[in-house]
Every structure is written in C-alpha cells, then in structure tokens.
Amino acid sequence: MVSRKLVAIICLLLSAWEGVQAQESSALPALHKPRAEEFQHYLWPASTLADTRLAHSSASKAFRQNNRRLLASTNTAAQAENGEGVIEYRPVGFNIDSGDFATFFAIAHANKKATGIRVAPGTYHVNDNVPDQSHIYMRCGDDREDDFEVDFTGVFFYFTNWEHAGIQLENCTNIDIHGPFEQTYTNDQLGYAQGTIVGINEDALEYTVEVDEEYPGERVMMTQAIAISLFHNDTLLIKSPDPYMDIIVGGTDGRKSLGNRKYSFKARGVTPNVTVGDYFVARGNLGNNGLRFEKVKNCTARDMTIFHTDGFGVYEPFGRNNSFLNIQIRPFPYPLGRDGKLPLCSSSWDGFHITGAHSGTFIKNSYIVNTGDDAIATSGFYYLVAAVDPGQKSVTIATDREITFNPGDLLTFYAQDTERLGTQTITKMYSVEEPNEISGKTSEIATDFKYDDADFMKVFLDQWPANMNRLRFDDSASSPSNNGDGFAFVNNTIGNLRGRGVLCKSSNGVIAHNRFFNLKGFGIIMSPEHLWVESDFVNNVLVLNNTINSYAPGMWLGMAPSAEGMPGMYTNNYNVDFINNTVANCATSPFLLTSAAGITVTNTTFVNVLCTQKDMRNYDWEVNGTIVMVANVKGVTFSGNSVIKDARCKHPYGNYDHPVVLINATNVNGLVAKTSVDSLLQADSTGG
Ligand SMILES: *[C@@H]1O[C@H](CO)[C@@H](O)[C@H](O)[C@H]1NC(C)=O
Ligand SMILES: *[C@@H]1O[C@H](CO)[C@@H](O)[C@H](O)[C@H]1NC(C)=O
Ligand SMILES: *[C@@H]1O[C@H](CO)[C@@H](O)[C@H](O)[C@H]1NC(C)=O
Ligand SMILES: *[C@@H]1O[C@H](CO)[C@@H](O)[C@H](O)[C@H]1NC(C)=O
Ligand SMILES: *[C@@H]1O[C@H](CO)[C@@H](O)[C@H](O)[C@H]1NC(C)=O
Ligand SMILES: *[C@@H]1O[C@H](CO)[C@@H](O)[C@H](O)[C@H]1NC(C)=O
Ligand SMILES: *[C@@H]1O[C@H](CO)[C@@H](O)[C@H](O)[C@H]1NC(C)=O
Ligand SMILES: *[C@@H]1O[C@H](CO)[C@@H](O)[C@H](O)[C@H]1NC(C)=O
Ligand SMILES: *[C@@H]1O[C@H](CO)[C@@H](O)[C@H](O)[C@H]1NC(C)=O
Ligand SMILES: *[C@@H]1O[C@H](CO)[C@@H](O)[C@H](O)[C@H]1NC(C)=O
Ligand SMILES: *[C@@H]1O[C@H](CO)[C@@H](O)[C@H](O)[C@H]1NC(C)=O
C-alpha cells in the first residue's frame, strides 16, 4: 500500500558542479598505492606496556595449571570496605584472580568513602574464576550514582581463557574507567589463526594454509567454523573488495591437519583472486567482547588499547549516554612468533557494537583497524506485530530479543513495505502468552523468525490515529527511545578492515572529522537492516568533514532490504546534511542517496572515483558510471560539490561530466539538467 504517490518518474542526467578539474597535484591520495596513513598501525609507536614473556603458551598453560596456588591480592575485602579515596588493588606477582578482583570491586564500589580503585601498574595474567563472566568483572549492585574512578594506568591484562570476555562493567552509573592500559589474550587463547595460503585447488574448492608460529592453529583450523580474509603479503593491506566476501568454510567437514602447522579445508564456494602467497586471517566465531558496557549509564572508558578479542572490541547493549575516548582497537604491534610475522587481526567482529542505547554513544579520537567486521555499528531492534487491538489502542509485540522499552517510551510502527504508520507513546505494558491465531506462523519480513519461539508484550498506546488501523500481523515496530539516538562519532581513524566504517541506524547525531581507509564495505552507511532485525531509518544527522579513501563504496543514506532489492519507496530517512566530505578512490558506488527527504549535499569532493574499467555496480538499479545516485528522494539540495579526476585514474569509467542520476526524485535543487531520458530505461538497464 502506497500512501504517498511518488510523483512522476523523472530521470535527468544533471550537472551543475564545478566539474572535472584536471589536477596533477600529488597532495591527493593515489589509487592503490597506500599512503603512510594506511600503514599507520605499523607506524604507530611499536610500543606496548606488555611484558611479552607472559604472552606465550607455556607461561599461560603453567598459569592455568597452577590456578589453585594463586593467592588473592594483598588487599583484603576489609581494605576495600573500610578504605578511603582511591583504593589500590595489589595483585600477587603477575596473577590476578578474577573472582578476587570482582569481589574487591563490588565491595569498594559499595563503600561510599571510596572514590575509586586502582590496579598497581604491571603485566598480569587474569584467570577465569567468575562463572560465565568476563575476566575483569565489575558489577554495580547498589544504587550508588556519584562519580567512581577505575584507574588501570600502566596495566597490561593478558586474558587466559578464550571462552570468556575481557572486561565487563555492569549496571553501573558515572564510572570513569581509564588508562592508559592495554589488553589481549595469551597467544594460545587467541580467537583467530593467521598465516599464508600455500596451496589452492579451485576445482575441489580446497585450500592449504600454513599457520604462523604461536597462533592456535589446531583449535581454530580444526574445530571451529571459520571465515577467512586475505591480505597482501607486502603491504599487509586487506585485499579489497575483490573478493568482498571471505572464504567461508562453515562446518568442520573437509578439514585436515597436515602437520608442521599446515592445514587444509574446503570452502563453500569459489572465492576469486586468492593467490598462493597471500596472507590470511581465519576468524573463529565465539563472540567474546573486549570491553562490555552492560546496561551502563553515563560512564566513560578512555585511553585503552584492545589488541585482540574474539568478538566485538567494545559492546554496549542498552546503554545511556556513555563515552569512549581514545580507544585503540588494533593488532598487537610485535610478531608473536620467531617468524617475524606481524599480527593482522584485532577484534574478530565489529570494533564498536552499540545496540538498544537509550541515549546514544560518544566515540572520539579512537583508532580502529584490522577488525573482522564493521568499525562502528549502532542500532536498535525491530519487533514484530503479533496482534492488533484498535479498540484498546493496543498492539501485541513479538520478539526474541530483550525488551528494554518502558511506559513513557515511543514506538514507531511500519507496514511490511516499510511505510511508516505512526509513532506513539506507550502508556502501559505487560507480558502475555502467544496469541492463539498466530501459533505455528513464521515471519515474512524477519527471515527465519518463528512466532512460537518469541516472547510477547502487550503495549497500550496514548493515541490511535487512523493510519494505525492499517497495522497488521507481521508488520514491525521499533523504539526511538532505545535506538541509540543522540550519538556522536568524531575524529576517529578507521581502516584496513573487513566491513564498513560507520554503520548507523540511529538518529539525532553527528559523524564528523573521521578518516576512513581501505575498507571492504561502505565508508559511511546509514540504513536499517531488516535481515538482522536491526532498526531504524535515520533522521537529523550531520555528516561533516569525513574522508573516505577506499576502493570499496563511499557513502549511502538509504535502505537496503536485500542485495538485489530496490532501494525502498518511502522517504523514511530525513534531515541529513552532508558537508565537506571527501570520497577518494572508490571503484564502486561513491555516493548513494535513497529513500530520503530533506537532504543537503554540500562541498563534497570526489577524487579519482570509478577508476577501474568494469561494471562495478552493487545493485541493478544503479546506473553504470554514476557518481551520485539519487533514487526515491523528496527534497535534496546540492551545492559546492566537485569531482576531481587526474592522471592517476587509470581506467576511468565514471560519467564525470554528469555525475548525478535521479530516479523518482522530486524537489531537487542546485543541479542543472543537461539531458533527460526515460527513467525506467535507466533504472532497468543492466548496463551495456
Ligand atoms: C542496578 O543499579 C540500580 C541503581 O543504579 C539499582 O537500583 C538496581 O538494584 C541495580 N540492579 C541490580 C539487578 O542489581
Ligand atoms: C579476480 O578474479 C576475477 C574472476 O576470477 C578475474 O576476472 C580477475 O582478473 C581477477 N583480478 C585480479 C586482479 O587478479
Ligand atoms: C606474495 O604473494 C605473491 C602472490 O600475490 C607471491 O607471488 C609471493 O611469492 C608472495 N611472497 C611471499 C613472501 O610470500
Ligand atoms: C554524567 O557525567 C558527567 C561527567 O562526565 C556529569 O557532569 C553529569 O552530571 C553526569 N550526569 C548524571 C545524570 O549523573
Ligand atoms: C552525557 O555525557 C556527557 C559527557 O560525559 C555529559 O557532559 C552530560 O552531562 C551527560 N548527560 C547527562 C544527561 O547525564
Ligand atoms: C584527533 O585524534 C587524534 C588521534 O587520537 C589526536 O591526536 C588529535 O588530537 C585529535 N584531534 C582533536 C581535535 O581532538
Ligand atoms: C577535518 O577533519 C580533520 C581530521 O580528519 C581535521 O584535522 C580538520 O581540522 C577538520 N577540518 C575542519 C574544518 O574541522
Ligand atoms: C567546511 O569547510 C570550509 C572550508 O574549509 C569551512 O570554511 C567551513 O566552515 C566548513 N563547514 C563546517 C560546517 O565546518
Ligand atoms: C562550503 O565551502 C565554502 C568554501 O570553502 C565555504 O565558504 C562554506 O562555508 C562551505 N559550506 C558549508 C555549509 O560549510
Ligand atoms: C521508481 O518509481 C517506480 C514507480 O513507483 C517504481 O516502479 C520504481 O521501482 C522506482 N525506482 C526505483 C529505483 O526505486
Ligand atoms: C560500464 O561503463 C564502462 C565505461 O563506460 C564500460 O566499459 C562497461 O562496459 C560498462 N559496463 C556495463 C555492464 O555496461
């Protein structure tokens, strides 16, 4: 059902920009040839607080075997209970017993005379003595809300169990956790293995690899589902974006341990452009986080370095107004083994993953490289509509996620085709049983979601405007009250990773002064992802002074229902301003603007984009050679944008004189029409 008739289908090839400037200046980034910045993680002072003797498997093994001999800290619970000011936790030797530390923290935090704790500087092994919890576990159980400091200055944590997360702060308010401090896992407890591709049999989809010294080859290569990404063996840059996907190995069938750290495995499908000699990272799939802020309010983490975690670098579920300042997520700066090979993986999943925040997250001055997925991802959830009762102004919501909205919070409702039906306030809510009429049903919009597996919440709304009468079973809802709105991602350096730079599904925020390089997905993408049941469309965002220097696509504000799908008819994204951004070296989709209204695009500079001579469109509706693709947009104003192409653009295929293509766009300002053609021809064109 279409509530808004998208006016006449227009498609114009337009140009009103400063146009193509011939520039010889070498101040601009060169295609393919990495700039110093791209090596920054190796140029980064190759220093660490670690006493690396504790990294090795033998030390770690001896430590675990001697667990029972570990003494607790030299601080007793009594000191934590009676001390004043910042109370120091003094581990015995290089051992921290996680249970002892967790108890010390809980008691000190409950002591109102304590203003914080500090851990004596040093390198420590941390064991896993808190059942099912992280190594460093800090839980705030009382209602203390005044400031509390956690000072880890000069500390290096070696975590010793790959099945447990690093640091967790839980249910805390107003805590400032800071260093400079660093953390990783001992070598035998890493969540990934790396090495060199030594043999390829494409017909049999079989690859043979040799794992570098000191990595947990046997565990990762033989017992875990793995995804493998590839790196150039000279520059150590991730191969990008061809192949975009990893070599996916899936189950452990077809794995062989060939001895001398050699393994072979079968891939699920063909991955092009894998060469003998390529370096690889094989990531396991456990998902432990480096730093987890669990239901934490108004807390800060700053000056910390995460060298490795087998999951998200930083995970922030259901937070409120938290800040992350100068967080580095980057590989350990020294080789682990005698073979001299530098580590290539930091977090195995996203660098920062923010979900269901009640008030968004501030990430500033951070450095995020070599992650196994996106650098910064922020979103809420889509919930499904199980039943509707207009008479009671109520909707029964189904979800398999935790529900963290409350009475007083907002819910936005969408029809299945993403038409927005309205946003109302919850007046009361309670859990209910599954409505009989939907038993056995499966969702069409959230693939694989079985209603029988869900929890159900009946919510009552303050208003029920006529549009809401169109709400049906299996429509969706999201809550702007816990969608991460009110965020700021400022002055971060992000690159050399298998994913996107910023993946934003939150509103009322700022993405400014960030530098992106050598990504495998979009630099900045603002779009809900129904596939992951992650909400929502994006409103009121300023995208300012970001530089994206990447072979992968540049920026997209829109909606991506599926790889093949159309861009989404409803202009649900609105009020987004793009100012002073630079997009350089993209071989595909420099800028997509879809499903949006009230947009400004000012002072964007495109440098040597579309310089690979082939059709590199990501979607059928993109027009080959287009620099700015605008589809299903109502109201966009362009000014001061420019396209620069110089001699370093080896195989230009962009339409540099007519950079913008419009499909189903109305109220477009600042462009001059040069030619007009039939849109459907353009839209349906498969190129050629
Ligand atoms: C979480 O902290 C709040 C105060 O900040 C307190 O009221 C509540 O009891 C704590 N929850 C749990 C489960 O400890
Ligand atoms: C990458 O693989 C594709 C398909 O196998 C091939 O056509 C292309 O030439 C390869 N590119 C490079 C740089 O090897
Ligand atoms: C680096 O990879 C290339 C293929 O891309 C290969 O020819 C070369 O031998 C490799 N070098 C090393 C040191 O592995
Ligand atoms: C949140 O923390 C800031 C300091 O970072 C403090 O100024 C502010 O008062 C805190 N807010 C609340 C509600 O405690
Ligand atoms: C949110 O955090 C910022 C930065 O710490 C602080 O200045 C502000 O006061 C906080 N807001 C609230 C409502 O606590
Ligand atoms: C931006 O981040 C870098 C690296 O953390 C830092 O050196 C610089 O001071 C930051 N700039 C501003 C304006 O904060
Ligand atoms: C743009 O961002 C860069 C960091 O990437 C910063 O150095 C520069 O000062 C910013 N420019 C403006 C005008 O804010
Ligand atoms: C954009 O860049 C120009 C030139 O560097 C600068 O004058 C202007 O203030 C910038 N705009 C914003 C909003 O920072
Ligand atoms: C765009 O750039 C011009 C020239 O540098 C500058 O005067 C103007 O303020 C910029 N626009 C915005 C919105 O920053
Ligand atoms: C443009 O609008 C037409 C008619 O509503 C629709 O069929 C077509 O899919 C739209 N094009 C795109 C790229 O969404
Ligand atoms: C896309 O455009 C380039 C340059 O004009 C051309 O070489 C290529 O064949 C086109 N691809 C398709 C599929 O039309």
UniProtKB/TrEMBL annotation:
Source organism superkingdom: Eukaryota
Species classification: Eukaryota, Viridiplantae, Chlorophyta, core chlorophytes, Trebouxiophyceae
SUPFAM superfamilies the UniProt entry points to: Pectin lyase-like (SSF51126)
Entry annotated with the keyword Ubl conjugation: no
Signal peptide range in chain numbering: 1-22
InterPro entries reported in the protein's UniProt record: PbH1, Pectin_lyas_fold, Pectin_lyase_fold/virulence
Protein name: Right handed beta helix domain-containing protein
Keyword tags: Signal
